[in-house]
Amino acid sequence: MSFIDHLEELRWHLIRSLIAIFVISIVAFVSVDFVFNTVILGPAKPDFWTFRMLCKLGELINSSALCIEDIPFKIQSRQMTGQFTMHITSSFVIGIIVAFPYAFWEFWRFISPGLHMNERSVSRGAVFSVTVLFALGIMFGYYIMAPLSVNFLANYQVSELVYNEFDITSYVGTVTTLVLGSGILFQLPIVVYFLSKIGVVTPSLMKAYRKHSIVVILILGAMLTPPDPLSQVLIALPLFGLYQFSILISSSVYRRQRKKEMLEQKKYTQS
User: Fold this and answer.
1) How far apart, in whole angstroms, are the C-alpha atoms of residue 187 and residue 60?
2) Long-range pairs for 92-96: beta carbons < 8 A, 24 or more residues apart
3) Exposure pattern of 213-250 as b/e (b: 16+ CB <10 Å)?
4) pTM of the entire structure?
5) d(CA 225, CA 93)
6) Distance CA 123, CA 109 (A)
7) With contact defined as beta carbons under 8 Å apart, do 106 and 17 qualify?
8) Which residues of the chain have pLDDT under 50?
9) Is the dihedral of CA 74, 78, 84, 87 positive or negative?
């Protein structure tokens, strides 16, 4: 295929991905009651799944402190177009999240024909792995980070005279940033796997920079979460765990490559 033909092929993959995102966004836009009252505003309600599980944990350990009965804040719209804009924004974000597996599959369909046979074999299952990690990141952001961050920020007061009344733009922006940011950051093992395959990253390098990674993780947590220590710690802990897991992945890739090189060297010496 010529360069123009490749661009034409890429264009159609992008168009199909955008159509999927657009269709799901329209469905989410029409389902406004479910999207806002159940999904978007869910982490701000005391009967949310996370808070109910915390309450059950509190009952097991005889601690009533884990039961959250009220989240004292109000959501307002201080701009005339605030609610409509957030309606469109939230629908589009849901479209991206739900259509992400299909969009990545379309992207992979464009890339995979250009791979060599050995490259295609080592990257088998890439769509599945990326989808699973993205889903885990989204669930972690929605069920752990979002409700705990909302509860912390809603109860934080510098004075009893100051009441928390958040703008809908701020609330929706915070929740979507936490959820999408978690989904993206959970792709770290996949990135490390491919960087290890091409020799850019080695397990010894990752171990040597383990302490530096903590600083980088904290900076990423500060960039992708609200400016409070709880959110930064919540995103930093699983990211550090993923970093440790990525070291194991890099070690596995490195051992396989070394074994393959030794076998090739052995065949060369015998010949």
Assistant:
1) 35
2) 92/21, 92/25, 93/176, 93/179, 93/180, 94/24, 94/25, 94/28, 94/35, 94/39, 95/20, 95/21, 95/22, 95/23, 95/24, 95/25, 95/28, 96/21, 96/180
3) beeebbebbbebbbeeebbbebbbebbeebbeebbebb
4) 0.82
5) 17
6) 12
7) yes
8) none
9) negative
* Residue indicated by tokens 């123009």: 4
Tell me the two tokens of residue 199: 């020799």
Is the Cα torsion angle 229, 232, 238, 241 positive or negative in sign? negative
Question: Which H, E and C letters describe the chain, residue by residue?
Answer: CCHHHHHHHHHHHHHHHHHHHHHHHHHHHHCHHHHHHHHHCHHHCCCCHHHHHHHHHHHHCCCHHHCCCCCCCEEECCCCCHHHHHHHHHHHHHHHHHHHHHHHHHHHHHHHHHCCHHHHHHCCCHHHHHHHHHHHHHHHHHHHHHHHHHHHHHHCCCCCCCCCEEEHHHHHHHHHHHHHHHHHHCCHHHHHHHHHHCCCCCHHHHHHCHHHHHHHHHHHHHHHCCCCHHHHHHHHHHHHHHHHHHHHHHHHHHHHHHHHHHHHHHHHHHC
Nearest Cα neighbor of 79 from 152, 143, 169, 172 is 169
User: How does pLDDT run across 215-265, given as a tens digit for each residue?
Assistant: 887 777 666 666 666 667 777 788 888 888 888 888 888 887 777 777 777
Find all residues with CB under 8 Å of 19, minimum gap 6, and list them. none
